[in-house]
Design brief:
The protein is α+β, with helices and mostly antiparallel strands. The chain contains five helices and five strands, in the order αβαββββααα. The longest helix has 30 residues.
């Protein structure tokens, strides 16, 4: 192939993929900082009255069972908050949580509601939860980006600084592969 053909292939592949790459980069950035967005979950809290009881009795009850199983840590499904409240977590990552405060006589029910479209975007980045078609599109885009990078290496004229940048990119790639 001549240089003009390579430049056209590079240009049109880049133009075809720029929207996909920008979308993937933007959503990837959001997902890298999902904690700042409360994991893309909204919480709906309902407070219900429950009978008032002594929290010391509840703590003694749980401590008795912790001694019987020879563990000092609190269980994951039942959690004690501030030494006076008990939490029951249900579902993945506590999708529904019941927080009971016997001293105040209240029970809070916390329902985690998926925040859309962010949860959908999270699933887009998770190949195991998406369709084979999306995985094929993402893989095709990755191959196109790879081709774009290689064709760019073949097209352009290089200066000394370009070789330093290319070498730095190779070092970053090797470090990323080592850390992954």
């Amino acid at each position: 192939m001549n240089m003009k053909t390579w430049r056209n292939l590079h240009r049109w592949t880049g133009l075809a993929l720029v929207g996909f790459v920008a979308f993937y980069c933007f959503t990837g950035l959001l997902l890298n900082h999902r904690q700042a967005f409360d994991y893309f979950i909204d919480k709906e809290i309902t407070v219900t009255a429950v009978p008032v009881s002594d929290p010391v009795v509840l703590r003694d009850f749980i401590e008795t069972y912790k001694r019987q199983i020879n563990r000092s840590d609190d269980p994951k499904v039942i959690r004690i908050r501030d030494g006076r409240q008990i939490e029951f977590l249900y579902g993945s990552h506590g999708k529904t949580t019941y927080v009971i405060d016997p001293a105040r006589g209240t029970m809070e029910t916390v329902e985690k509601i998926d925040r859309q479209p962010w949860l959908w975007l999270n699933n887009v980045h998770n190949a195991f939860k998406t369709s084979w078609l999306w995985v094929a599109v993402a893989d095709g885009a990755a191959l196109g980006i790879f081709f774009l990078g290689l064709s760019g290496l073949l097209i352009f004229r290089y200066k000394v600084w370009d070789y330093w940048l290319l070498g730095g990119g190779v070092v970053v790639l090797v470090v990323a592969l080592f850390l992954a």
